[in-house]
Amino acid sequence: MADGGESVCSPDGLDVPRSTLSNHWRILREAGITQTRQAGKARLMSLRRADLDARFPGLLAAVLADDRR
């Protein structure tokens, strides 16, 4: 999601129980970090980058830069 794309609620390659993943997505959505849109039966999530950058300038860039070290 950090690269500007959308992610499905159950991405391939994650070895996490579905209930844990659902809880994680709910927390991110309720915190205003992600947005979710319905596309048929799928739910697609994306990072609310513009909103986060406007509210907290530089925070997202700092968090993502630290993650890539």
Could you characterize what this model shows?
By secondary structure, the chain is α+β, with helices and mostly antiparallel strands. The chain has three helices and three strands, in the order E-H-E-E-H-H. The chain has helices at 18-30, 49-55, 59-67, and strands spanning 7-8, 34-39, 42-47. A three-stranded antiparallel sheet has the order 1-3-2, covered by helices on one side. The radius of gyration is 13 Å and the shape is globular.
Feature tags:
69 residues; 42% helix; 20% strand; 3-stranded antiparallel beta sheet; globular; alpha+beta
Q: DSSP helix count? A: 3
Strand content: 15-25%
Taken from the alpha-carbon principal axes, the silhouette is globular
The residue-averaged pLDDT reads 85
Rounded to an integer, what's the Rg over CA atoms? 13 Å
Low-confidence stretches: none
**Class per helix and strand makeup:** alpha+beta
Distance between the termini: 18 Å
Tally of DSSP β-strands: 3
Major sheet: order of its strands?
A: 1-3-2
